[in-house]
Amino acid sequence: MTRAPRVAIVGGGVGGLAAALALERRGFEISVCEQSSALSEIGAGLNLSPNALLALRALGVEDAVIAVGSESDFLVIRSWKSGRIISRMRPGALRQQFGAPNLTVHRADLLEVLRSAIKTTEIHMGARCIAVEQSVRGAVARLADGSEIEADIVVGADGIHSAVRKCLFGPDAPRFTGCICWRGMARTGTVPRDIAVAQGAMWMGPHGHVVHYPVRRGELINIVAHFDSSAWSGESWTQECDIAELTTTYVGWHPDLLRLYPCSERWYKWALYDRDPPERWSQGRITLLGDSAHAMLPYLGQGAAMAIEDACVLSAAIARHADDLDEALLVYERLRVPRTRAAVLGSRERARENHLASPWARLKRDVKFALRERFGGDKTVFHSAWLYGYDVGRELR
Fold it and tell me: Full-prediction pTM beyond 0.90?
């Protein structure tokens, strides 16, 4: 192929925009179709572990993301009831061990950094993809308004309910995990001063855990509460709920948490579903990226990181095999499937460990965490060096 490949990306979330930036930087012709009318997301924070920062470094936007985020490698794990510290990651430990910090950001801020870095990509808002199919040239994405986008490659980065994945492999059968999440966002100035929120914290208890961490340079506190329950089965992230659901669910938990919840003006809830990672991501000139390929539970904090890594590897594979794009997608798939599958399965295992019901089992877990922090070669409490130490830039050189 003598001309630069044209790539159409379905989905303008973190993975889609990261892919657009990565491909654009290699000189490809890119178009993105996003069904939402604006590149934003209501009140959602996310974690960017060191491997995510290293991938953003490869994209040339690490400093810009750090400027809008909050460093939280001083992560405190606390007991759900007494508040005692189970483990505490020392400041700078992750940066020292992995060459990049752990960062927490508002999702809308990350999207804006990625969007601002994109220069030539066409971004079509309010463009909902309803189907994809192979074409003589490559592949075509068909939109709800009757229009279509034809390209050499179509990338499905359209999230957990991916229309692209459904066209490739048929409808999936998500499995309810038995866990409900609630999320809120508090302005830091509204939080009582005696509640420690300047650093990220996880409160671990029977059948659930709560995390809170600063975003937007510390101006906001993102709060996410998880609990084992079958009382709600909706997957939508935008379903509002009453704060009474939290105060009832977490009765008996530490008073600081119960005083923190009212600091958020709104609360949203959703049920966690699990999907088995597919063995294949591609058919012909159509492939998947991010949650559409490997939607995972949030317990490793790797959803965004894996999508950004995908973007870097996809762009490199296409650049190296521009004369054989079918081979490029197979190389991309071979490089990414094993690592993302391990992340999906690791998230499942972490869910079990986070929500132990037995007091004896929780005590053994807490002692194990304390010993890992003090004596472990892998200084991360959850033994996550296999995740955090991956430098996609080095991998591609």
Answer: yes
